Amino acid sequence: MRRIAAVAVAVAAVGLTACGSDKESSGTSTAPSSAQRLDPHRMVDLQSHRGGRGLLVEESLAAYAHSIEIGVSTLELDIVLTADKAPLIWHDPVIQAEKCADTAPAFPGDPKFPYVGKLVHELTYDQVRTLDCNKTLPKFPEQQPVPGNKIAKLPELFDLVKSYPGAFEALRYNIETKIEAEHPEQSATPQEFVDIILDEVNKAAATDKTEIQSFDWSSLPLVKAKNPAIPTVALYDNSTFTPHSRWLGPIHYEDHKADPLAAVKALGADIASPSYVEPWDTDNTFGSPGFKMAVTTTDVQKAHNLGLKIIPWSINDKPAIAAQIDTGVDGIITDYPNRMREVMQEKGLPLPPAFHK
C-alpha cells in the first residue's frame, strides 16, 4: 500500500485528517453518537493487504490463497509493469534485497544480472521470474516464508481464485497502480498501467469485481475514461496531500486546503482511502500519548454525505481495528485479516465467507 519513495517527504505542518478537522483526533473518542448509531448488521469490507502480509510472504500466491481460506471480502494488491509490460503483483519499483535473492541469469551472459537492486521497469518478465522472493520481514514476526516464491502475474491471481469453488463469484479485487509520481522514470506511464490492468481484468471477466486505487491521482480519471463503471480509490496520507504535491494529478491542493475528501470528490473518485493514522509512519500505537487517528466519525459522515465510501489503511492492531469500525468506515485494509475477522465476530458483524478446495 505505502509508496516506497515517500520516506524523505517533508511531512510539515499539514495537520491532516480525512476532512481537515481536529475533532475526535486522539483515537479514543471515535465512536458514533447516539444520533448516529451504526447498523449492527452492516457489511464491512475486509481487505487483505498484499494478501495478508502479516501472515505469509507479501503478495505471494500462497498469501492470497491463505486469505481466501481465512475468509475476506477483498484481495488488495499492487501492480508493477516490467520492461515487456507484464503486470506483476508486486509493491516496489526496485527489487529489494530484503525481499528477494538472485538465483541465476535469465540467459548466459545477461549484462543486467544480478537483478536485485534493479528497477522492475527495466527488467523483463523472464528476468524477474528467476528471483526467489521468499524472505520474511522482521516487521512482521508472524510472517511465514513461502519456499521458492516467484513474483506472480495478475492473471495467475485470477486463476487461483477461480480454483476455489464459489470464490470468484464472491471476492473483489482492489488493484493499485504502483506509479512513482515523484520519479516517473522509475515506472511505466499511467496510461500504460490503466490499459494493461483493465485488459487483464476484462479477460478474466472480473470487471464488475474490481476497483482501481492509486496514490497517483492522475491515473484514476484514465480509469473512468476507459470504463466509467469501475470504482476508483484515491489513496493519500499527510505526505501526499500537500501543497505542490505531484501525487494529486489534476487536483490543485490550494482549491481544497486541508479537505482531502472534497478533493477526492472533485477528482471523481468513488472511495477515499487515507492512512488511518497521522503521520502515516508514526511509531505511536493506538491509545498511546501522541497517537492521532486520522479518520473519525465526523469524517465518515462527511464522506457519506459527499457520496463517497471511506476505507482507511493499514490497520493491524485489534483495538485500533475495533475503534475504526466504530467510526462507521465502509471497510479496512489490514495486514492481518485473521485479526479483523476476530474483531468483526466479537462485534456481531457479518463475516465474509471462507472458501476451500
From TrEMBL:
It holds the Pfam family GDPD. One of its GO terms (molecular function) is phosphoric diester hydrolase activity. One of its GO terms (biological process) is lipid metabolic process. Residues 26-36 have a biased composition (Polar residues). It comes from the Bacteria. Residues 20-39 are annotated as: Disordered. PROSITE patterns: GP_PDE, PIPLC_X_DOMAIN, PROKAR_LIPOPROTEIN. Residues 44-344 form the GP-PDE domain. This is Glycerophosphodiester phosphodiesterase.
